[in-house]
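Running this now, will post back.
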Amino acid sequence: MCGTTVRGPCPLAIVASLTFETTPMTVTLSRRFVLAIAALSALTSVPGFAQAHETLSKDGTILIQNLWTRATPNGAKVAGGFITITNKGTAPDRLVGGSAALAARVEVHEMGMDSGVMKMRELQKGLEIKPGETIELKPGGYHMMLMDIKEPVVEGGKVEGTLVFEKAGTIEIYYHVRALGAISGEMHKH
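Update: finished.
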């Protein structure tokens, strides 16, 4: 029941390891505690609820947050990957590529205006992230391009993959899949 986004031990494992006293007041409080933990655990397994997923590179210099992609229609051959990257190190690093389980290849891309026309291009040398800098890869700007996808990307799911940095190396990640046409990684709230 515990999702991979839960930090530390599984809340249900914590509850299972507790011993309870038999006084009526303690039992009543303990039952409330157990119900609260069970509810929290159930919510963290709901797709889209506990999306505070973050990953730190093995050397501790690159922080990856807010990974998401959009659902794709049947027959689509590409998808965009969107991420927030922070360089916590003392030297610049460069995002040079990645991989995705459902794509033949993953490239670093940039979108921008050129003579009044929106154009997209691969960044052949990757994307530099300076020390202390946070860069948001988002629609209409820098992004990861998942190329030659083998199957539709389905809303509510996850796409497993990696990001590759020049110095920090390979970091395992997953993108949360938002609705077709989503403009941010945030869940829509009513």
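Residues 1-51 have pLDDT under 50 and may be disordered. More later if anyone needs it.
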